[in-house]
Design a protein that fits this description.
The complex is a heterodimer of chains A (281) and B (259).
Chain A (H helix, E strand, L loop, with lengths): L4 H28 L4 E3 L2 E3 L5 H8 L2 H32 L4 H12 L3 H12 L4 H8 L14 H25 L3 H9 L4 H12 L1 H17 L2 H7 L6 H10 L4 H30 L3
Chain B lengths: L1 H31 L16 H8 L1 H34 L2 H11 L1 H4 L2 H14 L6 H25 L3 H9 L4 H30 L2 H6 L6 H10 L5 H24 L4
Helix pairs in contact in B: 1-12, 2-12, 3-7, 3-9, 3-11, 7-9, 8-9, 9-12, 11-12
Chain lengths: 281, 259
């Protein structure tokens, strides 16, 4: 392993160059564009706050909706993921590794593929409707299973669950069995040791899981489009349509910056809140 | 009594969650072999028709070629680059390495759409014409953090005394690297390469905006989805699943990942 500073810099150089050229540069350019304007389909550099004013007026509703649905998705996913990781680490015994394996293999398996799968499950000719019809619980297919906010939540929870389980499981692995045994010997029940021992030590894992799921949900535009229908347009849909259809890249950029600001704000509040809530009393 | 109730509750919860994770994918694979036009039960016999229909599309062959090229190129770029960076970060103090790695992982914190539009804007401002060569760096910039994280994690608990002994016995730094470091970390490197290739194979949003009309397997899925019902989507989705899940399983085996 390199020790000399010169060698360290040399080793980090290629990755850093790629990072600067293809991330920092384009992103800075795109963000600066949010202050520009468009006239006669041409970008006009300048310093204009118009686009941001529009974000908080014209796009206030989709922005609020995106925040609410991303919060719901991140909360459901993180809670499920915590329970699942807790099960895999402390309760499942020899089944634990199998639960972890299932999580891992579903992690990288197809973003579009998963959305498509839910579309075929929830559609009016889909499996769920066919099953309910077959059982005689309904007389005709329920068309509302698809194209509503609930379908977006289910699809994204399914897609994001593995991404939330892994960081939480990672931090649960650091908790020694001895600590839990000691707590039990001293008379703490399972819920007491959960609150006083397990949760404080996996705070970071929970925050990372929540952050990942919130960010991905808040920035998504494909799931709402494919399973959400017209009533669930999220900010990502406007980022895309302003850029592609309206050819208004500056407005698109201001909306994108707004998503990032919402994400950063949410994480800040969450971290502060979690620290306070999980402090050992 | 309560012990038994909670045991049963955990079993139900575990089974339910595993089914929730796996069932949508299992259904997809099932329907890719089913005789039904629509993805619905009961299945009307087994058929390879959707695969035959898929392989007959000239779009599919182009997409397969492009996806293969990209995933190999992304693996071949992001692994050496990410490995070098991981070595550099492993040489830093942990307190300093943390923020450095977090910074490199910033592209993961960004909605892919934002990264895609930023790259698209930059390319068009610089008059760079779009194609596979513009997709490649866009994929590498968000895949290299995974490689760095995986290899750094291995390097962090690497027994340095082995390296010191090699050096004491007269090995040059390069020789020590080839004979000591590389054999120890090579499973991790292979795992990282497979993860990088799986991520590339599955990447849609950045690819879609920076390929300029070309096709990869995910952009083909997108095209088929928008053109209403074509059961060969199931076959195509199954092939992507086999590629990504297969690579992940091999990666887990190679790295002996345990969480």
């Amino acid at each position: 392993m390199p020790q000399r500073p010169f060698v360290l810099v040399l080793f980090a150089l290629p990755a850093t160059l790629i990072f600067l050229l293809f991330f920092v540069g384009p992103f800075a350019y795109f963000a600066v564009m949010s202050f520009w304007s468009v006239s006669a389909y041409r970008l006009t550099p300048g310093f204009d706050l118009e686009n941001y004013i529009d974000v908080f007026t014209e796009y206030a509703y989709p922005l609020g909706f995106t925040f609410a649905i991303a919060l719901a998705i991140a909360t459901v996913t993180t809670t499920l993921a915590f329970a699942f990781a807790y099960l895999a680490r402390f309760r499942a015994g020899r089944w634990g590794p199998i639960l972890l394996f299932v999580t891992l293999i579903t992690m990288f398996g197809g973003y579009l593929v998963k959305i498509y799968a839910w579309r075929t499950i929830l559609g009016s000719t889909g499996i769920l409707n066919a099953g309910l019809l077959g059982l005689g619980l309904i007389d005709e297919p329920l068309p509302w299973l698809l194209y509503n906010p609930g379908a977006v939540v289910v699809t994204l929870v399914h897609f994001l669950l593995p991404f939330a389980v892994l960081p939480i499981y990672g931090s649960l692995r650091g908790i020694g069995d001895a600590q839990l045994a000691a707590a039990r010997d001293l008379g703490a029940g399972p819920s007491r040791s959960l609150v006083d021992i397990v949760l404080p030590q996996c705070e970071l894992g929970i925050v990372v899981a929540f952050m990942l799921t919130f960010f991905i949900a808040a920035g998504d535009y494909i799931t709402p489009r494919l399973v959400g229908g017209p009533s669930t347009a999220m900010i990502g849909n406007f980022v895309e349509s302003q850029f592609i259809t309206a050819l208004n890249a500056p407005q698109s950029s201001a909306l994108a910056v707004a998503i990032l600001a919402v994400c950063a704000g949410t994480i800040f509040v969450l971290r502060t809140g979690m620290r306070k809530a999980l402090a050992v009393r | 009594m309560t012990g038994r109730v909670s045991r049963i509750a955990w079993i139900l919860f575990g089974t339910g969650t595993v089914l929730f994770m796996l069932l949508p994918m299992v259904l997809l694979v099932l329907f890719s072999f089913g005789g039904n036009e629509l993805a619905s039960f009961p299945l009307r016999g087994l058929t390879f028709d959707w695969y035959t229909a898929l392989f007959a599309k000239s779009d599919f062959r182009v997409a397969l070629e492009n996806s293969t090229y990209l995933s190999v190129a992304v693996g071949a770029t992001s692994v050496p680059v990410g490995m070098l960076a991981a070595f550099a970060f492993a040489g830093l103090k942990r307190r300093r390495a943390g923020p450095a790695i977090a910074a490199m992982a910033a592209p993961l914190m960004m909605p892919p759409l934002v990264l895609a539009l930023a790259l698209f804007s930059a390319y068009s401002a610089l008059d760079i014409s779009l194609g596979l060569s513009t997709v490649l760096p866009g994929q590498v910039v968000f895949i290299q953090p995974f490689v760095i994280l995986v290899i750094y994690a291995r390097m962090a608990d690497f027994d340095r005394t082995l390296l010191d002994s090699a050096r004491d016995l007269g090995a040059s730094p390069f020789r020590a690297f080839v004979t000591v470091t590389l054999p120890i970390i090579s499973p991790t490197v292979i795992g990282a390469a497979l993860i990088a290739m799986a991520l590339s194979l599955d990447e849609f949003i950045i690819t879609y905006y920076t390929i300029g009309g070309g096709l990869t397997l995910p952009t083909l899925v997108w095209g088929l989805l928008r053109r209403s019902l074509d059961p060969s989507v199931n076959a195509l989705a199954t092939l992507i699943l086999i590629g990504t899940v297969g690579a992940t399983i091999l990666a887990i085996r190679a790295t002996r990942y345990r969480g």
